[in-house]
Specification:
By secondary structure, the protein is α/β, with parallel strands linked by helices. The protein has nine helices and 29 strands. A hairpin with a 2-residue loop joins strand 25 and strand 26 (about 395-400). Helix 2 (about 15-25) packs parallel to helix 8 (about 340-360) and helix 5 (about 235-245) runs parallel beside helix 8 (about 340-360). The longest helix is centred in the last third of the chain and has 20 residues, at about 340-360. The chain is elongated. About 40% of the residues are buried.
C-alpha cells in the first residue's frame, strides 16, 4: 500500500476525493511491456517510438487509371487536335518488370502501379479514347475482355503537367521518419500505418484485465424471473462496459450472495485473470455488507503489505469506498458502493484513472470544462461534500438530469456529464459557471 493508505487516519477520518485518488494512482503501476502481433495490440499503448524503415509509398505510382506518357508528347492536345501515341503495353499494380516509355509512346497504367521509366506524367483514361478510336471514354475495359487495349494507338484530348496524378515516393512518410510516438494508443488507423511500413509486431503495454464482481443476495440476472424483494443486477453490466470503454479487457462475474466466505473464494478464483479487481456493493455499515467482512483482514493471510482499507469519502454520491491489494501478486482492488449511480460515479472518478494508469497513459482523466448552469431552481449540496450531479452538456451550458438520488439509473442513462459542486458550496444558482466532467 502507498504511504497515503498507511498514514494514521482513524476509522472516522473523512478522506477527500483527491486524497483517495492520489492513493490509488500512487499505488497502481503500469503493466510490463510485451511484444504483440498487430491485431492483438489494438487498444494498447506503445512503449517506444516507431521509425519508418521504408518510405511510403516506396516508389512513384499512379493515383489514376490512365496512360503514363511524356509531357512533351501531350502538350497542346485538344478535342480537335488530339495527341496520338503508340501503346506499348500495360503497367499493373504489383508488376516488377516495367516497360520503358519513349518519345511518342504511352503505357496503360493502373492505380497504384509504379510510374514506368521514361514516363513523366499520367493522363486519366477519361481524357482519352481508351484506344478504341470512338471519342472520350469513361473507363478501361478489363484486360481479360479486351486484351487488344494494351497495344495499338490511343488518342489523348488534354495536356498534362509533369508528375500530374503521380504519388511521389515518400510523400506519405519517408524512411527514418518517426511514424508513431511512445504513448500512442493503437487504433485502426495506427495499426494500418504499422502494417503499411512493414511492422508485424509492436512493443506495447497490454490492455489491463479487469474483473468486476457484484454482491447482494437480492440480485437477479437479466432475463430471469424476479422474486419478492429482488432486483436485477445492473451494476456488474454497467461497470464491465465502463471498463471496456476505458480500454480494459473486462470480465463480469455474476452476483455473489451475501456470504463472506463465498465472496472471498470467488475473488481468489478470479485473481488468476485479473490485473485489477472491482467489487460493487457491501462496503457500507450494514449487517450484510459482506465485502468489508470478507476483505478487511485479507492482508493477515496474504503477503506483507496486502490488504484492503475501507474509507469514508467527503463526496456525494459514493461516500463508502474501499481500496487496497490482495493475493500474492498484490492485485489492486477497488470496492465501490452498491447504489447504481454511486458505483458508476465512483468508477469514473477512481477506477477509470486506475485502468488508464495500468495502460501506461500520462493523461488518465476525463476531460473537464466550465459551463453555465441552466436549471429551474438553485442546486443544493451538502456542506463539506463534493457533489457530482448528472447532467447534459451542450454549447457551453449544462443542465441537471434527474435528482441527487443514488438509485436513479434512468437519469444516469441520459447524462453525458457530471456537474461538480465543491465542498464549500451549498447552493448553486442558475446562470452560475460550474466545473463539468465530460463523459462522452
Amino acid at each position: 500500500m502507498s504511504s497515503a493508505a498507511t498514514r494514521a487516519t482513524g476509522p472516522d477520518h473523512l478522506w477527500s476525493v483527491d486524497e483517495h485518488l492520489e492513493d490509488i494512482l500512487t499505488t497502481v503501476r503500469p503493466l510490463e511491456p510485451i511484444e504483440l502481433n498487430l491485431l492483438d495490440a489494438q487498444g494498447c499503448v506503445l512503449v517506444e517510438d516507431v521509425t519508418v524503415p521504408v518510405s511510403l509509398p516506396p516508389f512513384d505510382n499512379s493515383s489514376m487509371d490512365g496512360y503514363a506518357v511524356r509531357v512533351a508528347d501531350v502538350a497542346g492536345a485538344s478535342d480537335e487536335f488530339p495527341a496520338v501515341l503508340d501503346v506499348v503495353g500495360d503497367v499493373a499494380a504489383g508488376q516488377a518488370d516495367l516497360l520503358h516509355v519513349g518519345p511518342g509512346q504511352a503505357a496503360r497504367i493502373m492505380t497504384g502501379a509504379p510510374l514506368p521509366p521514361g514516363a513523366e506524367t499520367v493522363v486519366p483514361v477519361e481524357w482519352t479514347d481508351g484506344g478504341l478510336g470512338e471519342g472520350p471514354v469513361t473507363g478501361m475495359r478489363a484486360r481479360s475482355l479486351a486484351p487488344e487495349g494494351a497495344e495499338g494507338h490511343v488518342h489523348v484530348y488534354r495536356s498534362a503537367e509533369a508528375r500530374a496524378h503521380v504519388r511521389a515516393k515518400g510523400s506519405d512518410v519517408k524512411a527514418g521518419d518517426r511514424a508513431l510516438e511512445a504513448g500512442t494508443v493503437l487504433g485502426p488507423p495506427q495499426i494500418g500505418l504499422l502494417a503499411a511500413i512493414g511492422r508485424g509486431t509492436v512493443r506495447v503495454r497490454p490492455r489491463p484485465r479487469v474483473v468486476v464482481v457484484s454482491t447482494g443476495s437480492e440480485l437477479v440476472q437479466p432475463d430471469e424471473q424476479l422474486g419478492s424483494g429482488q432486483i436485477y443486477d445492473s451494476n456488474s453490466f454497467a461497470l464491465t462496459a465502463a471498463a471496456r470503454d476505458a480500454g480494459a479487457i473486462a470480465y463480469r462475474v455474476g452476483a455473489v450472495a451475501d456470504d463472506a466466505e463465498t465472496l472471498r473464494s470467488t475473488i481468489e478464483d478470479q485473481l488468476v485473470r485479473a490485473d485489477l479487481m472491482v467489487t460493487t456493493g457491501g462496503v457500507s455499515v450494514g449487517a450484510y455488507d459482506v465485502v468489508k467482512e470478507a476483505l478487511s483482514h485479507v492482508g493477515d493471510e496474504d503477503e506483507e503489505g496486502a490488504g484492503v482499507e475501507f474509507r469514508k469519502l467527503a463526496m456525494q454520491p459514493g461516500k463508502p469506498q474501499g481500496f487496497g491489494s490482495i493475493g500474492p501478486d498484490h492485485t489492486p482492488l477497488l470496492a465501490l458502493p452498491g447504489n447504481p449511480v454511486s458505483s458508476y460515479v465512483s468508477f469514473e472518478l477512481f477506477v477509470r484513472p486506475a485502468i488508464r494508469a495500468l495502460m501506461g497513459l500520462d493523461d488518465v482523466h476525463r476531460p473537464t470544462t466550465r459551463a453555465t448552469l441552466t436549471a429551474g431552481s438553485a442546486l443544493t449540496s451538502p456542506k463539506g461534500r463534493r457533489q457530482f450531479l448528472r447532467g447534459t452538456y451542450a454549447d457551453g451550458a449544462v443542465t441537471p438530469v434527474g435528482g441527487a438520488g443514488s438509485h436513479l439509473v434512468a437519469a444516469l442513462a441520459h447524462a453525458d456529464a457530471l456537474i461538480v459542486v465543491p465542498e464549500d458550496v451549498e447552493s448553486v444558482e442558475p446562470g452560475t459557471e460550474v466545473e463539468v466532467v465530460l463523459l462522452g
